[in-house]
Design a protein that fits this description.
Strand order of the largest sheet: 1-2-3-4-5-7-11-12
Distance between the termini: 34 Å
Largest sheet: 8 strands, parallel, barrel
CATH superfamily: Glycosidases
Structural class: alpha/beta
Order of helices and strands: EHHHHEHHEHHEHHEEHHHEEEEHEHEEEH
CATH topology: TIM Barrel
Strand content: 5-15%
CATH class: Alpha Beta
Length: 490
């Protein structure tokens, strides 16, 4: 007899998430090399609607300029919020909130500064040993992304990025080092962050400069194939190192809904959804689904593969599906006739008149998270993990270090309610990590003042400030959510 679940499962992994390139800083310390994240600049004098432009398009001149030590431009992700020197303080604050897990990433460039070295950088490895030991002190489970938007810049400038098959070798060498070094400290791994986002920012995800590729779709999907093979080989290495370890894929998931019941809108939605879920389809199932043939043919893409690629992908699919969820998106076959969702920097989409939006134009749809969880579980029948969800907002520090971020609490409360509804629906979801649990440098706009955290960092967009950490109102609210395993949300 089937029983309806009415509560979050025992042992549910509550926590928060960050990425090394947005939080650590210390870009020139400990033997670290330059990553693709380190070449994104920030100019506070630019119009606000242009702050995301560079993230979506990188040029040769920008890359070259970023490597010139005489250039006076400011590169925020080189500085992060100095987690590198504050990790003990920050982890103690995570523990005070009651975190069961912390989703983080390892900076590839701390381990292999250029990416093509034969031996790893011991100073970088030792840093993560200290971080994992600090997490263990508080019984916080690390959930580690092997590559999160920070591949070595050298692999882009010298090899052309993931379109080059050599990167499979370099990534697998790196993955072998970290999964073996930390096999007794890390149980949960993810191979690539938001792997499907390479569709929208090929430099960040693939190290591919679009100027080099007149046929950019060919470059994107060839790079994706190489990442699929690399992911499978990393999963193999992880399983051989620790058979109890769990390896997941990670995608950016924006629930897509037809703008209307026009059959053309419905079909356009199906096509866009396949473009997004193609990446998890391959990593979960271990093969290219049937619709791939037409999808690639329509894009005039012909993949170059090697003997053994298909078998390694089949032999080592992922154990779980992880995803980020910030918004839903309405799709129309005739978007030129409708008002666009201006804040949706990744896939565009049509403004949904039934939804409100954040200060950055991201439309807020908590109920869409329940739908997304059901869609993904119905599709894959594998455990799900929500690795990113949160609200970027401007926070104001009032007298007495009071930060009343009730708007963030409201956002998170409504989303967590919908996760519980999905649990009652029968979805196997085993964890939730709110994005940017401490203020970080925004991936898309390179700001710090687009804040996500429960913990405020006294730092502005130009890296000025004391770096002092301050608890927001949401800090205390989330602590109670975790203490009650999601039962008390008010």
């Amino acid at each position: 007899m089937l029983n309806v679940k009415t509560t979050f499962p025992e042992g549910f992994l509550w926590g928060g998430a960050t990425a090394a390139n947005q939080v650590e800083g210390a870009w020139d310390i400990g033997g670290k090399g330059l990553s693709v994240a380190d070449v994104y600049s920030f100019d506070e004098n630019l119009p606000k609607d242009r702050w995301s432009d560079q993230w979506l398009m990188m040029t040769h001149n920008q890359v070259k300029e970023a490597q010139d030590p005489s250039v006076e431009k400011f590169y925020p992700k080189r500085h992060g919020v100095d987690f590198y020197h504050h990790y003990k303080e920050d982890i103690a604050l995570f523990a005070e909130m009651g975190f069961k897990c912390y989703r983080m990433s390892i900076a590839w460039t701390r381990i292999f500064p250029n990416g093509d070295e034969l031996e790893p950088n011991e100073e970088g490895l030792a840093f993560y040993d200290r971080v994992f030991d600090e997490l263990r002190k508080y019984n916080i489970e690390p959930i580690v992304t092997i590559s999160h938007y920070e591949m070595p810049l050298h692999l882009s400038t010298e090899y052309g990025g993931w379109v080059n098959r050599k990167l499979v070798e370099f990534y697998v060498r790196y993955a072998n080092v970290v999964v073996n070094r930390y096999k007794d400290k890390v149980k949960y791994w993810m191979t690539f962050n938001e792997i499907n986002s390479l569709n929208h920012h090929p430099f960040t995800s693939l190290g591919v400069v679009e100027e080099n590729h007149p046929h950019i779709e060919q470059a994107k999907y060839q790079g994706a194939h190489h990442q699929f093979v690399a992911s499978a080989l990393a999963t193999k290495a992880c399983k051989e190192s620790n058979p109890e370890a769990k390896v997941g894929c990670m995608i950016s998931y924006q629930l897509l809904v037809p703008y209307s019941c026009d059959p053309d809108d419905v079909q356009a939605t199906i096509q866009k959804q396949r473009n997004a879920l193609f990446f998890s389809d391959v990593q979960v199932r271990g093969y290219y689904p049937a619709y791939t043939a037409r999808m690639l043919a329509d894009k005039n893409v012909v993949l170059e593969t090697e003997p053994g690629d298909e078998q390694i992908m089949r032999d080592y699919p992922v154990d779980y599906v992880s995803f980020s969820y910030y918004m839903s998106s309405a799709v129309s076959a005739h978007p030129e006739k409708l008002e666009g969702a201006v804040g949706n920097v990744l896939i565009g989409g049509i403004k949904n008149p039934y939804l409100s939006a954040s200060e950055w134009g991201w439309q807020i749809d908590p109920k869409g998270l329940r739908t997304a969880l059901n869609q993904l579980y119905d599709r894959y029948q594998k455990p799900l993990f929500i690795s990113e969800n949160g609200l970027g907002a401007i926070d104001v520090v009032q007298e007495g270090d009071v930060i009343d971020d009730e708007y963030r609490i409201d956002y998170l409360r409504e989303h967590i309610k919908q996760i519980k509804e999905a649990v009652i629906d029968g979805v196997d979801v085993f964890g939730y990590t709110s994005w940017g649990c401490i203020d970080i440098v925004s991936a898309s706009t390179s700001q710090v003042t687009k804040r996500y955290g429960f913990i405020y960092v006294d730092q502005d967009d130009m890296n000025k400030g004391t770096k002092r950490r301050v608890k927001k109102k949401s800090f205390h609210w989330y602590r109670n959510v975790i203490t009650t395993n999601g039962e008390e949300l008010e």
